[in-house]
Amino acid sequence: MTQVNRVEGGQIDRNTPLKFKFDGKSYTGHAGDTLASALLANGVRLMGRSFKYHRPRGPLSAGSEEPNAIVTLRDGARAEPNTRATTAELFDGLSARSQNCWPSVKFDALAVNDAASDFLAAGFYYKTFMWPAPFWEKVYEPIIRKAAGLGALSMQEDPDEYDKGFRHCDLLIVGAGPSGLMAALTAGRAGKEVILADEDFAMGGRLLSEQIEVGSTSALDWTTQTIAELSSLPNVRLMSRTTVIGAFDHGIYGAVERVSDHLLEPAIGKPRQILWRIYAGKTLLCAGATERPIAFENNDRPGIMLASAMRSYVNRWAATPAQRVAIFTSCDDGHRTAADLHAKGIKIAAVIDTRADTPMSMNYEVLAGAQVTNTKGRLGLTVVEVQLADGSTRTLECGALGVSGGWNPNVHLTCHQRGRPTWDGDLSAFVPGGTLPPGMTVAGAASGDLSTNGALLSGANGAAEALGIKAADTPEADDTPATQSAFWYVEGCKRAWLDQQNDVTVKDVRLAHQEGFRSVEHLKRYTTLGMATDQGKTSNMGGLAIMAEIAGKGIPDVGTTIFRPPYTPVAIGALAGRMRGMEFHPTRLTPSHYWAKECGAVFVEVGNWLRAQWFPIEGETHWRQSVDREVKATRASVGVCDCTTLGKIDVQGADAATFLNKVYCNPFAKVAVGKTRYGLMLREDGIAMDDGTAARLAEDHFVVTTTTAKAGPVYQHMEFVRQCLMPDADVQLISTTEAWAQFAVAGPNSRALLQKIVDPEFDISNEAFEFMACANITVCGGLRARLFRISFSGELAFEIAVPSRYGDALMRKLMEEGEEFDVVPYGTEALGVMRIEKGHAAGNELNGTTTANNLGMGRMVSKKKDSIGTVLSERAGLNEDDALKLVGVKPLASEDKITAGGHLMAADGPVDAANDQGYVTSAAYSPEVGSMIGLALIKSGDARMGEKMRLVSPVTDSEVLVEVTSAHFVDPEGGRQRA
Amino acid sequence: MIINHPLLGPRDSAEFVYMGDASLIERPDPEAENAADQFHDYAYLRDNPAGELRELWFHEGGDRSWLVVTRDTRTHEISKVELARDVARSKGRSL
Asked: Is the CB of A871 inside 8 Å of chain B's CB atoms?
């Protein structure tokens, strides 16, 4: 197909033809085109169907404010719904589909909705589909969701990458039109760090679309020269294809740079988009203005568009929507479009001006005091009906109608904090007002200065004032003051569209008012005016004006809805950046990770850590086989487990013991050097926070361990106590979790194994290195290490720590030296089984609701000193006679299952919450006991040993009989760990 | 937000962890006669002003200082940033 509506001139590269497809049909455009301009050049005005009534629609605008020409761009996994054809940069091989239509954009079955419009007016879904109630979820909603809504997702994973970046500048300039360019020149020449961002792929704003002079040259030439100068300044960063989406606290701005959206696919190693966080000393908003349409009967046909957009298509993209065009305007701006189009040889059917006093033309007819009362054309405009000043009617044949109702300053970013725009009566528009985001000022059309000269001047002055520098000289340009009046809609219309994206008509606004939705925020929610991808950039103003008129108020009294970020839609991928899949959070690997991987370990995520869960060997087909074997082998001889993930905090200083005495509820002041003590930390409300050990390696040096999960929070808490509660204490903290690789070596042969690697000058016999001892030692001939005689399994056990980089080697050494003892590595499952068998509390028991008393450690809480949590731990409510106590449970029938989370009921009586006696916190199969066992918190549990209870789990629909036992299933006297 | 750290200069609030009301520095005297009541108020009661609030921020992604940040809860304007340790000392806390 030829480009029938391509005209001369423009800023497209005619030497670079680009092939593209729309709805399966092939077309050719040029480099520099947008999808919309290329389609118009090819004679295509119809680009989609509307949201609710499925009415045929074409582009209304030539920019990001577009409500209508919304397409699905690309195919397969890269398909992106709801893309604006007006901003989609054309590339070779582009493929796009229209939305909201089936089977095709030209024949859409759901266009019947249009005939049923009386039933689908504002709020229809609150009034219909009400009965029968169950039908809503199953029948009505799915149908409505399918029929309404915008495009559909591909449901495939996004193949592209997204990045995040950070930039700093003295001055951020948002928008590269005449004011933005002058601001950049002013700040750039003064040597300031400048970021000039513009959402368009070409900088210049309206200067690219106007046939005007700037200085002694054309606007385009001035723009080209200015950008060349700015590019030569190393302190100026030009960011085209970059939308500043939001103004956040303290001068931080969000911006999305579309790095690769103009390419078939991103270059290798390049992201599709980058989300920038820009720290701006000052910000000058030069976002320009958006032309506003006029509502009239059937004003939504393809071919009807904003007059300025028409000018852009013709001047910048050399594409006219039709060969015969009419203009409907309430201000001088419409005449400018007529003149520009006429100069390109496009026939002007007439300029219809609502004003009686209107500029006349020698070249085409101007109908003063006239209004458009209706339009015709099934899939695109063919006829415009006009009511003339004398009341008579005239019809004009034309393929396009340019509409101009004046301009609205783009105040959006000024409102992202607390700014509320103020009404400018002369301009009949809202201008920036209230408290702007800190450091932000506004220049050019965005500030209400609508002339080119005004934009250039206010840009230069705005940058100069913001930075305290001298303004650059500005070239002469058109200085005609803007004349615009308030003309929002043509009276007497049945269906005049205000918001074309949401199919909201003038009548819908009246209906909302009539039904009591009179605040602008209610109006928005009830009619959906100003919602969806365009956020009402072309429609809000009209809606407000009509609302004000009906209410008999002034527009400023009605107010506006609040503009919130983002300015234009942002792909979720850009917000996620690289944080997808396994990159969602950092993955921390233990020092023995690669060794464990070689062994075929199965890993489990524990917070950010990957830990070996069990180590299957040949012939094992079920995890239980591996775990049972690891437990038995450890208890029979020796096992090794990487416990590096436990938090380690180095506590040093003369007041280290005093400090630990404050954070642990049990006494720490008198721990001897060379000894380790178990410690329980409480929160200030008396609830247990975490537990661990503190090893005193020197008078002024402790090493504290925390649980894996609480390593961060406990460190934070300890710093709080140190800095905020004990500011003069001589104590220093540092987290050394990553610095030391630590392994538990457990089992009756653990000492024998360690003796093979601990250097001979260190005696680790039971006499010299008794239970709970700790020491700095060396291993393997001089490698510094720390040895702790602590046991989580209940066996004779040690934990040995070496600098992290030796962790892998130490694990391999332990396995090698342990061969004679049939050493096994064990994972987190076996670790868990052994600690449950031993009755040690862990995360399941320290669950944020339990006290020391619940955990059977009530007597540990020292009454002789003050520590965090002691005062409130003594509250009566936490110490009642029937308080929960940690006990063990085992099934009466050994094959029965103990379910963690299951609740315990007395042997008889109803099974309900009122009779709840407690719950199982941890459960495991115990090879030692020969059945499953559990730890449980039971009311007065310590006084109920031997009681038979029912363990019920409504979740798994199970009920088994259990017996309450001691929590210590293995070696309750603790002889093994002291051996 | 940007927090002007007294030692490190302006830092993005993303580097910090928030803990709320700085009155947590004013831990009651456990020996006081009505210590239980005082600790109850200390642990559970917070003002929720629309306006200036002194609050604790922990520079977890930085030098691990606890800071007392005076922030207007309506505007996020930060009028003062102090080291919590200095504030604690000024409140008479020591060991």
From this structure: yes
Share of chain A above pLDDT 70, in %: 98
A385 shares its domain with A415 = no
- Which domain does B69 fall in, by range? 2-90
B30:A719 CB<8 A? no
CATH code, domain with A671: 3.30.70.1400
Split at pLDDT 50, 70, 90, the class of A695 is very high
Question: Do residues A556 and A549 lie in contact, with contact meaning Cβ atoms separated by under 8 Å?
Answer: no
User: Of chain B residues 37-76, which have a CB less than 8 A from chain A?
Assistant: 39-40, 42-44, 56, 58, 60, 64-66, 75-76
Measured distance between the N- and C-terminal CA atoms of chain A, rounded to whole angstroms: 92
The total domain count for chain B is: 1
Q: Which two tokens mark B95?
A: 């060991």
For chain B, the 3-state helix, strand and coil shares in percent, each to the nearest 5, are: 25, 35, 40
Q: Is the pLDDT of residue A860 over 90?
A: yes
CA A104 from chain center: how many Å?
A: 35
Q: Which pair of tokens denotes residue A285?
A: 């908003």
Confidence of residue A478 (pLDDT cuts 50, 70, 90): confident
Q: Give the domain-ending residue among A404, A429, A450.
A: A404
**Whether the predicted pLDDT of A147 surpasses 80:** no
Q: How confident is the model at residue A149 (pLDDT cuts 50, 70, 90)?
A: low
pLDDT (tens digit, 9 = 90+) per residue, A495-525? 999 999 989 999 999 999 999 998 888 989 9
A544 closest CA partner among A520, A568, A517, A525: A520
Please say whether the beta carbons of A434 and A336 come within 8 A: no
Q: Are residues A379 and A367 part of one domain?
A: yes
Q: Distance between CA atoms of A589 and A579, rounded to whole angstroms?
A: 18
Task: Give, in order, the Cα–Cα distances in Å from A689 to each of A680, A781, A887, B27.
Answer: 8, 40, 20, 18
Choose the mutation target among A718, A726, A871, A872 for the interface with B, i.e. most B CBs under 10 Å: A871
The residue of A725, A726, A732 whose CB has the most chain B CBs within 10 angstroms, and thus the best one to mutate to test that interface, is A725
Does A340 fall in a domain? yes
Sequence-distant (6+) residues with CB within 8 A of A576 are A162
Q: What is the DSSP letter of B8?
A: T
| Closest to A818 (Cα-Cα) out of A589, A628, A616, A641 | A641
Q: Are residues A230 and A369 in the same domain?
A: no
Amino acid letter, residue A26: S
B-facing residues of A in 719-758 (CB < 8 A) are: 719-720, 723-729, 733
> Quick check: A685 and B93 CB within 8 A?
no
Give dist(CA A288, CA A308) in Å, integer. 13
Smallest CA-to-CA distance from A168 within A235, A259, A229 is with: A235
Q: Is the pLDDT of residue A121 over 90?
A: no
Query: Does B95 map to a domain?
Result: no
> What is the pLDDT confidence band of residue A277, given thresholds at 50, 70 and 90?
very high
Assigned domain for A306 exists: no
Alpha carbon distance A814, B66 (integer Å): 42
Task: Look at A724 and B85 and tell me if their CB atoms are within 8 Å.
Answer: yes
How much is the pTM?
Answer: 0.92
Structure tokens at A518: 């009179």
DSSP state of A877: G
pLDDT over threshold 60, residue A265: yes
The CATH number given to whatever domain includes residue A513 is 1.10.10
Question: Structurally, how many domains does chain A consist of?
Answer: 6
pLDDT at residue A144 above 70? no
Average pLDDT in the A596-601 region? 98
A771 exposure class (CB count in 10 Å sphere: 0-12, 13-18, 19+): middle
A782-797 average pLDDT score: 97
Q: What ipTM does this complex have?
A: 0.99
> Is A912's Cβ below 8 Å from some Cβ in B?
no
Give the type of residue at A435. T
